[in-house]
Amino acid sequence: MKRLLLTMTVGLATVFQTGHAMAGKELDAVKARGQLICGVAVGGIAGFMMVDSQGKWTGMNVDICRAVSAAIFGDSEKVKYVPLSGQQRFTALQAGEVDLLSNNSTWTLTRDTALGLDFVGITYYDGQGFMVPKKLGVKSAKELNGASICVLTGSTSELNIADYFRTNKMTFKPVLFEDPDQSRGAFFGGRCDAYSGDQARLYATRVANAPNPDDYIVLPEIISKEPLGPVVRHGDNQFADIVRWAQYAMLEAEENGITSKNVDEMLKSDNPSIKRILGVTPGMGKALGVDDKWVYNIVKQVGNYGESFDRNVGMGSLLKVERGQNALWTKGGLQYAPPIR
């Protein structure tokens, strides 16, 4: 027993002294390829993941992929984006077709335990709602008894609607689509009375896809919790750690006032926390198995969480979404990152 305890003590001491991350096969594969493969949503969602006519992807979810690339390669653009439907996404990740999902996937117990996958953070706190044409005259979701509702199949939205209507002793007619473009087209074409999904998707759809956004309203009810975040395959803790801490780094940067515009000046800061975060005091990169400038590269090339939020979905965007529960914990929100130390 004494010999066993001595062996364990020596082993733990070695881990703490070296501070090195354990190498993982997923990360090794990404490095060998020289590119991160990131699964996004087919059809896109304005503000979260959209591709332009030149094939360039932008959005909050895209920024997570870019941050992971910046942490691993020092270059936020070494990413290949693969559009996946709601039904394809988890299977594609399981099969190794993508390294990471960053496509507004909701973190649930069954997804986290039964699929061989790991959710590693919450990029956006959301909830499901309903959008209807103003001419329908509906002011509340509880007035939708008997309504036809356009919704994506294979999503938590489909299950949440069934629960909500059953709880409120109402009926509805589901109109199911795998392709978001078809679902949106059916709703705006008058095939459905209502369109349901995460509220972020509803506001994005109204602004980006409605023939006349003012003709549609998002009803006030939020019928679910939808914590949206990146997903990786179970088994490679090092790669999961990098994805997790890439997002935390963006939050820590915002909390410490580090932005893409002042990050170079912040390298001169005397604040011990900022010096650790930006790699002036070495060690945090080695703990993850990346360069000590990993946070600097993320903030310089992608920005902090607040910058990403503002330009993609917040007041600097067409969506004009309030920070709300996605504000930092210091400002009454839920976004909270463990310390980088």
Q: Can you describe what's shown?
A:
There is one protein chain. The protein is of the alpha/beta class. It has two domains: 21-125 and 228-324, Periplasmic binding protein-like II (D-Maltodextrin-Binding Protein, domain 2, 3-Layer(aba) Sandwich); 128-224, 3-Layer(aba) Sandwich (D-Maltodextrin-Binding Protein, domain 2). The protein has 14 helices and 14 strands. The chain has helices at residues 2-18, 25-33, 60-73, 89-94, 109-114, 156-167, 180-188, 199-209, 237-255, 263-266, 272-277, 284-288, 294-301, 305-312; strands at 36-41, 50-51, 57-58, 79-84, 100-101, 117-119, 124-126, 128-133, 147-152, 172-177, 194-198, 216-218, 226-228, 231-233. The strands form five sheets. Strands 10-9-11-8-12 form a five-stranded mixed β-sheet, with helices on both faces. Strands 4-1-5 form a three-stranded parallel β-sheet. The chain has a two-stranded antiparallel sheet with strand order 2-3. Strand 9, helix 6 and strand 10 (172-177) form a beta-alpha-beta unit. The longest helix has 19 residues, at 237-255. The model is unreliable at 4-18 (pLDDT under 50).
Task: Give keywords.
D-Maltodextrin-Binding Protein, domain 2; 2 domains; 5-stranded mixed beta sheet; 14 strands
**Overall morphology:** globular
Query: What structural category arises from helix and sheet content?
Result: alpha/beta
Number of helices: 14
Q: Please report the first level of CATH classification, the CATH class of the largest domain.
A: Alpha Beta
Number of beta strands:
14
Major beta sheet, strand line-up: 10-9-11-8-12
- Stretches where pLDDT falls below 50 for ≥5 residues? 4-18
Name given to the CATH architecture of the largest domain: 3-Layer(aba) Sandwich
Specify the biggest β-sheet: 5 strands, mixed
Average predicted confidence as pLDDT = 92
Give the name of the CATH superfamily of the largest domain: Periplasmic binding protein-like II
Give the N-to-C terminal Cα separation: 34 Å
How much of the sequence lies in strands comes to 15-25%
Radius of gyration, Cα only, in angstroms? 22 Å
The share of residues in helices is 25-40%
The third-level CATH topology of the largest domain is D-Maltodextrin-Binding Protein, domain 2
**Secondary-structure element pattern, one letter each:** HHEEEHEHEHEEEEHEHEHEEEHHHHHH
Total domains, how many? 2
